[in-house]
C-alpha cells in the first residue's frame, strides 16, 4: 500500500472505532506537550521529532514498531509526508499523513443529534481539539446557532445540507479561549448577531442586545428559547433554555465544574456574580438537561459520545462548589484555585471584541490548545502531586 493522506475526521473515526493504529506526532516536544490528538478511548501515540528523522533516521525508524498501521501528524502536513516517505522506504506498508496538519484536528467539529422533537432538532457540535461545544437549533427551514467557532464554512455547509437559513447566532459570553465565528457568520448570511451588553457593550461588534427573560423565536413555530442571564464567568454570561427542557449553559454549568470567574482579572467581583448565579441555577428544574460550552475530558461524555447531563446531576457532581456555605467562602475558594491563564487569551478577547484583526496564521496559532475555563479544584490537585 502506498502512503496516503487522510482528513482529521477520518482519524477521529478510527480512534472512536478503536481501530489498531499508532498515531505518530512528529512535531517538537514543546508543541506536542501543548496540544495533541486526544480520543474518548485509549490509543497508542508516539512523539518522535521530524528533525530526528532528518538527522538520525535509522534510530528514529527503529522506534516505530514494524507491521503497524501508522497515522502521522505534524504542524502543517509537509513534515508528516516526509516522514511517511521515510517509513515507506523502510518497509512500512500502511502509512498515512494528516492533511493540513494539526490545525485541521484543532478546527474539526463532530456533529451529534441531541434531540429530534416534533417541531425542532437540536445538534451539538463537538470540537475535540478545544474540548468545546457549540449548538445548532433547527425549526422548519431556519437555524439558530450558539457559540459557533471560527470554522465558519462548517456551519454554512451544515445549514445548506439541512436546507436551512441561519437566522440568528448567539454568544453566551465574550470568549477568551477561542475565536468566535458569530461575527463572520452574521456578515456572510445576514443572521442577527446577539450578545449580552455586560460583555459586548465595550466591544466594537455590531450586535443586538439580549434581554434577560426574553423569548427568542423562529418565524414559523418551533421551540421557545428563553434568555437567562447567568453572570459570573464573565459579567455578560448568558444561558439559553430551550422549551424548558434543555439549557445551553455556555460557561455557567459544566458537567465536572463551573466556569472560572478570574479570566477577566477581576476575580473577587466576578466571583460574587458567579456565587449569585449559582444560587439562581440551583432553583431551576433539576430535570432540565444541561448542554455545556466546554468539557474537561472524554470521561464526561455519554455512551453516544455526547456531552449532556441533567442539571441535578451536574449540581451533585459539583456539590463541593454548589454548596459552599456563603459568599466569602466562595470567594476564598476561587482565590485558592486560581491559576495563570494562557497568554493568548488577552489577544483572543480583542479579536472577539472586533478590536484587533489578525492574519489567518496567527488566528490558527491563537486558536489551538484546550480551554482553561473551569474553576476546578486546582489547588487540591497540585497538593496531591507534591
Strand order of the largest sheet: 6-7-8-9-10-11-12
What is the CATH T-level topology of the largest domain? Metallo-beta-lactamase, Chain A
End-to-end Cα distance, whole Å, is 49 Å
Q: What is the H level of CATH, i.e. the homologous superfamily of the largest domain?
A: Ribonuclease Z/Hydroxyacylglutathione hydrolase-like
- Relative helix content: 25-40%
Count of DSSP-assigned helices: 16
Looking at the overall shape, the CATH architecture of the largest domain is 4-Layer Sandwich
Mass-distribution shape: globular
Structural class: alpha/beta
| Uncertain stretches of 5 or more adjacent residues | 378-386
Overall radius of gyration:
22 Å
| Broad CATH class of the largest domain | Alpha Beta
Biggest beta sheet summary: 7 strands, mixed
As an assembly, this protein is single chain
DSSP, total strands: 18
Please give a quick description of this structure.
This protein has 386 residues and is an alpha/beta fold. It has 16 helices and 18 strands. Helix 10 (267-282) packs across helix 13 (327-336).
Task: Provide a descriptive summary of the structure in words.
This protein is an alpha/beta fold and 386 residues long. It folds into two domains: 4-104, Oxidized Rhodanese, domain 1, CATH 3.40.250.10; 109-344, Metallo-beta-lactamase, Chain A. Helices cover 33% and strands 22% of the residues. The chain is built from 16 helices and 18 strands. The protein has a seven-stranded mixed beta sheet with strand order 6-7-8-9-10-11-12. Strands 13-14-15-16-17-18 form a six-stranded mixed beta sheet. Strands 1-5-4-2-3 form a five-stranded parallel beta sheet. A hairpin with a 3-residue loop joins strand 15 (238-242) and strand 16. The longest helix has 16 residues, at 267-282. The radius of gyration is 22 Å and the shape is globular.
